[in-house]
Amino acid sequence: MPFIPLEIPPGQYRNGTDLQASGRWRDASLVRWHEGAMMPVGGWRQRGTVDIAGVVRGMLTWRDNSQNQLLTFGTHDSLFVMEVDNSVADITPTGFTAGRVDASVNSGYGGGFYGNETYGSPRQDSTQLLDPTTWALDTWGEYLVGCTPDDGKLYEWQLDTATPAAVIANAPTNNTSLVVTEERFLFALGAGNDPRKVQWCDRENNTSWTPATTNEAGDIILQTNGDIVSGVRTRGETVILTTSDCHVARYQGPPFVFGFERVGTSCGLRSPRALASIDMGVVWMGPKGFHLYNGGAVQDLPCEVSDYVFSSMNEDQLTKVYAVVNSAWREIWWFYPSGDSTECDRYVAWDYAENLWMTGNIERTAGVDTGTFRQPMWIDPDGVLYEHEIGNQYGSSGVFAETGPVTIGAGDNVMRVTNLIPDEKTQGDVTATFKTRLYPNAEETSHGPFTMSNPTSVRFTGRQVRMRVDGDTNSDWRVGVMRIDASEGGRR
Question: Mind listing the domains of the chain with CATH numbers?
């Protein structure tokens, strides 16, 4: 009999039932697909001895006017900056109000609704959570600006590591977030304790916030049922996301300065840092799906692993979700906490060049793309900083991919497989395991793992089979289309 190719399309599919993933890669970790072939993602190594005290939920890289490379980290109670020699300075503002490492139920005064419970009796869990603290970080020219919703003040750091960040004079307080527009306006989001208010300073002057005929400062209250969560600049526009919808701000010049338009409903942002700006627009994770704005109206972004991702999340800690662009591979990664985990221990990634989805396991809480520094840098819950996409070391993490059920026999025929012909770049660096069944609900039988040779001698029988590929974590391997030598074994 001729060899049967196991033509598994690139990318993962993990929606619906197990059988719906038939003939697709279903489970995987730390792999990607490039030009049709499967390969491991780049490995990682620790960046010197950088070890930040606290869980980082905000990172930003930039260069000052002297081309010095800088990286800032924000935790629930501190702000740090790292220089290219890995020296770290604490630039936490004086009088900064610390927030929370984890989300917690607000059971204190004002945390519930008046009159809903009997006085003196234990309250029911209202599931009204106080979110963990995240930082909104941006640059004002060569200076750093930042804000957390728990502290609410707008801060600026002017590059002196001996001097902490300081409150921006005259800026509104009790803010939720901030963003700097392409036109050099600083937006205070959720300004003045109004969750729908956007207030901006005069152009190029972040200490002038009072509107006058001689400046371009101003404010607006968005027409929305949601609360402002975050903002990001994109080509010619500034995108503002609430818990329920999406708005864009476009510069018009005096007298109105900015025009605001709602461009999407039922597309709220789930976490303050769950959004990313790329060439094609702004992409973000919502409560139960992904969304894309690239001009015009917001689009729902079809996701072939959404059932798995959103059913496996820790709902109480979802505001820890953090999006990172990996531009070298045209990917966006979202780190998220799974199950009962209180920290981000999994990821879902979208290859926006080839429209592929990937999932896996990794413990990272924040990260930055390459550009300012040579490698992308991501940080784990213990504050250890890693350079990524370098080498083939993955700590204790496994690199693998496994298909859904693949039917190998025609009709009710049972097939006997005797040989595997691998399509592998570095033969011997990948093993294959096959899991067979005679019936859809029958018990699986595992065969292997088999170390690849050409051909590889295998022996198994079944109507459908899963194939698992495990890669050597010290090799830059590639896997294409495997072929099996199979013959009919009759009916059972």
Answer: 4-24+399-491 (2.60.120), 44-168+271-388 (2.130.10)
